[in-house]
């Protein structure tokens, strides 16, 4: 069974601080995919990034960066110089090997981390 | 640019009533799914479908029915609503093509309250 753990339920930071959101996953698949989604107060779910298990390069997109470490089964998300607009709930998710059956197309989500950026 | 469209956005039901949440996508995605979101619980999968005529249960299927008669539509039926089904429901779809795993595209959500 797949599992995603986001141990931080809520985080508050002051604007311009850096913040890291943790994500730890469990899977028996050797091929899998990891995702991050953002849910702002308006409620929609916004896709941020997809990473496959064969690509351990870290990725940076503007103020966002992701650190994928297979050795620790972690896919952490860092926001640099946080802004009020970053206030949202962030979800980490896991999808399995697409060749292992229909169930592999499911995304298993963590419970989310609520980030509050205080001006 | 419709993407995934859910209706209604808001609904209030009385215990025991039935209703259908509609979901349609115009991206020709084979995979469609329904999630419910409850405070502190994240998103939990209710049912999913990998193509027309094929559906399967997710983590929390009890009290819900689905069908998939076309690629575009994936309605979620509440047979006899209960207060425990008060939640925000999201429909989502993604490409299912060989080894390619794309991201889920979500609808805007439907907020259901059962009194």
What does this entry look like structurally?
The complex is a heterodimer of chains A (119) and B (115). Chain A is mainly beta. Chain A contains no helices and 12 strands. Chain A has strands at residues 3-5, 10-14, 19-21, 24-26, 33-39, 46-52, 59-61, 64-69, 74-79, 88-95, 107-109, 113-118. In chain A, the strands form 3 sheets. In chain A, strands 2, 5, 6, 10, 11 and 12 form a 6-stranded mixed beta sheet that branches. In chain A, strands 3-9-8-7 form a 4-stranded antiparallel beta sheet, with no helix packed on it. In chain A, strands 1-4 form a two-stranded antiparallel sheet. Chain A is globular, with a radius of gyration of 14 Å. In chain B, the strands form 3 sheets. In chain B, strands 2, 4, 5, 6, 9, 12 and 13 form a 7-stranded mixed beta sheet that branches. Chain B is mostly beta strands. Helices cover 0% and strands 54% of the residues of chain B. The model of chain B has no long low-confidence stretch (mean pLDDT 93). Chain B has no helices and 13 strands.
Describe the secondary structure blueprint for this structure.
The complex is a heterodimer of chains A (119) and B (115).
Chain A: E1 3-5, E2 10-14, E3 19-21, E4 24-26, E5 33-39, E6 46-52, E7 59-61, E8 64-69, E9 74-79, E10 88-95, E11 107-109, E12 113-118
Parallel strand pairs in A: 2-12
Antiparallel strand pairs in A: 1-4, 3-9, 5-6, 5-10, 7-8, 8-9, 10-11, 10-12
Chain B: E1 4-7, E2 10-13, E3 19-25, E4 31-38, E5 42-51, E6 54-57, E7 64-66, E8 76-78, E9 87-94, E10 96-97, E11 100-101, E12 105-106, E13 110-114
Parallel strand pairs in B: 2-13
Antiparallel strand pairs in B: 1-3, 3-8, 4-5, 4-9, 5-6, 7-8, 9-12, 9-13, 10-11
Q: Which radius of gyration of chain A do the C-alpha atoms yield?
A: 14 Å
> Could you tell me the mean pLDDT of chain B?
93
Helix-strand topology string of chain A: EEEEEEEEEEEE
Write down the oligomeric state: heterodimer
Poorly predicted spans of chain A? none
The DSSP helix count of chain B reads: 0
State the helical fraction of chain A. under 10%
Structural class of chain B: mainly beta
The averaged pLDDT of chain A comes out at: 92
Share of residues in strands of chain A: over 45%
Number of strands of chain A: 12
Distance between the termini of chain A: 41 Å
* Count of extended strands of chain B: 13
Order of helices and strands of chain B, N to C? EEEEEEEEEEEEE
For the largest interface in this structure, which chains are involved and how many residues does each contribute? Answer: A-B, 24 and 30 residues
Choose one word for the global shape of chain B: globular
Number of alpha- plus pi-helical segments of chain A? 0
Strand content of chain B: over 45%
Low-confidence stretches of chain B: none
Helix content of chain B: under 10%
| First-to-last CA distance of chain B | 35 Å
